[in-house]
Amino acid sequence: MNEGTSSPGRPTAANASRIDPPPAFVERANVTDRSIREGFADRWPECWDRAAAFLDWSSSYDRVLDAANGYDWFAGGALNASYNCVDRHVEAGRKSHAALKWEGRLGETRTYTYHDLYREVNALAAALRERGVEAGDVVTTYMPVLPELPVTMLACARLGAVHSVVFAGYSADALAMRLADTESAWLLTCDGYYRRGTAHDLKRKADNACLRAPQSVDRIIVDRLDDDRSYGDNYAEYATLLDEYAGETVDPVPRESSDPLFVIYTSGTTGRPKAVRHATGGYLAQVAWTSHAVLDLEPGDTHLCSADVGWITGHSYVVYGPLALGATTVLYEGTPDYPERDHLWEIVERNAVDVFYTAPTVIRAFMKWGAEHPQRHDLSSLRLLGTVGEPIDETTWRWYYDHVGNGACALVDTWWQTETGGIVVSTLPGVDGMRPGTAGPPLPGISADVVDACGEPVDPGESGSLVLTRPWPGMALGLGDSTGEAPTAWRYETGDAAAVDADGYLRLLGREGNALNVAGQRLGTRELEAAIVGVDGVAEAAVVGVDGPQSDTALYAYVTPQRDAGSAGPLRERVRAAVAAAIGRFATPDVVVFTPDLPKTRSGKVLRRHLRQIASGERVSDTEPLRNPEIVGELESIVDGVS
Ligand code: 6R9
Fold first, then answer.
1. Of 247, 546, 562, 520, nearest to 390 (Cα)?
2. CB 544, CB 535: distance < 8 Å
3. The whole model's pTM is what?
């Protein structure tokens, strides 16, 4: 555990030196015009025309933003996301260009040209149509990062159906909740997947989830494992369907700009994950434009984003952004240290990757393993490095810049959320200087403020809450309680703490309140706590995350057992198993601390701040708000004993 009060996950240096973008990068960057910011600022919302111009519309829109009835971006326009990500590149003569390159966990590789992608998306869309899928229906997927996953997303989009991608690491319970909540009557899954060379059964979890769903679920299964299992009558085989429908085509169904493209679940403020819906036109425009302006992608580039497709980062920057631009996206199924700690660098070298996008937690792991791993490879194809998911500290930033980028790449620290759809805070790499540990200004067209508890902007350098004060195209449907408000009154509270420096760069300071960032993914403490409190023998629970010096957030679960709970060992295992079952193994607490009570205010609120300080070995100075201050000393000695 980390000691003392420093928190390496948080940037501290407000005035870290600026690094100019490498001249060789600027020379060929997509965006180099410094006036772009003014152009956007004066012409909001019309400035977002530039983003929509990256798409082909089957009917052009009449208004950039219609604020009369919620916030309707590119109102009156119609388009199809599958057409934009596939057909138009084929029509433009890029049939034989690589669209997807898949790097499997057992070292397998598969390449899909845009023409291959076109054929498979069409065949699957024909099969889904035959199985009753229509525009507006929700189709669920539950599989690891296989090429079949983006193919399914694009086949749904072609039909105007809404996809709901469920991360394969989630439990049967988590899948069942999502199936029921969306009333989804189709599921595409696979038999299992490999982790560190060992096969894991996914079909069993999918079966369990379907049993629990109130509706009947039509199932299609991808054969991933090397075994002879038969799947039974409930499943159609993906490969068989592709053969059956080979050569069939499905006309892309035009969608209104505000029709949903997909639904994705994220941690909200309550114990239950919340459904976030993204609109076809605004979302696709935002991810295409940011892929161009921030990730600097262009047709012919090879992009590797290490995120799982099941998270929003995978939706936006593994699938939709790069494919909308006609680039090559590398789908990475693996784990960075399997079979070797240079696995990712080997992939970068072999595919001559131009742009690499990952999370600080991954970079910190690389840093721990040592610079010799990237050094062993020729990474000179890289031109831009990106990071997302949590604050990146200056040390990690510099390591990434020096040892992966060899001091010659542009580096973007991109801040955004499931709700924002795409990047909203970042430097423009061909225009702005980089400042390690500081994400950058809001992108042109985005307005942000850092405010105090009364909603007043704080002084430069002071920390406060980050709010976005104008809508943007990639915003989730219905965000910020939009109905009826004039655009000037609209605001969206991001739930992140931040400070804005004198030059307008934002320093992100982590989540406020009850959300946690684990391995770059957002989890609500309430979701974890709800799972723990459901365990027989548990009276109460509170979960906090603590940043380790080099590694991920460590999860501490403070648990008050019931009087007749039995011995601690088995209860601890039941707590861990309950979290694994409700959410997934990746969310299992690192440390379970049993305590007779939790620190509480007089009104009974659990003070997680105190629990965080105790877990990180800091002194708890401020016991004034506590109803039970004596618990602090007791907890300090218990935690000392277990961590
Ligand atoms: C894209 C994604 C969103 C939360 C967000 C914030 C954290 C993301 C960050 C960052 C500091 C960055 N976050 N990018 N914090 N610097 N560059 O991660 O979406 O899973 O919804 O998480 O992640 O706390 O509020 P999501």
1. 520
2. no
3. 0.87
Count CB neighbours of 365 within 10 A: 18
The ligand 1 atom at the shortest distance from the C-alpha of residue 521 is 20
Which of ligand 1's atoms lies nearest the C-alpha of 494? Answer: 25
Is ipTM over 0.90?
yes
Whether the pLDDT of residue 12 is over 50: the answer is: no
262, amino acid identity? F
Q: What is the Å distance from ligand 1's center to 506 Cα?
A: 13
Q: What pLDDT does residue 565 have?
A: 82
Average pLDDT of the chain is 90
Tens of pLDDT, residues 540-582: 889 998 876 655 688 999 999 988 888 889 999 999 999 999 8
Domain ranges of the chain: 23-500, 519-641
Q: Are 85 and 320 in contact (CB under 8 A)?
A: yes
Question: DSSP string covering 242-289, please?
Answer: HHHTTT---PPPPEETTSEEEEEEE--SSSS-EEEEEEHHHHHHHHHH
At residue 347, the 3 state secondary structure works out as: helix
Average pLDDT estimate for 448-457:
89
User: Is the distance from the beta carbon of residue 388 to the nearest atom of ligand 1 less than 6 Å?
Assistant: yes
Please determine, looking at this structure, whether the domain spanning 23-500 carries the CATH number 3.40.50.12780.
Answer: yes
The DSSP H or E segment spanning 451 is strand 448-451
CATH code of 519-641, in short, is: 3.30.300.30
Q: Please state, in angstroms and rounded to a whole number, the distance separating the CA atoms of residues 6 and 258.
A: 45
CA-nearest of 218, 219, 186, 214 to 202 is: 219
Q: Is 496 in the pocket of ligand 1 (CB under 6 A)?
A: yes
Q: Is 522 in the pocket of ligand 1 (CB under 6 A)?
A: yes
Q: For a ligand 1 pocket test, name from 269, 316, 385, 517 the mutation site with the most ligand atoms within 8 angstroms of its C-beta.
A: 517
CA of 253 to the centre of ligand 1 (A): 33
CA of 94 to the centre of ligand 1 (A): 34
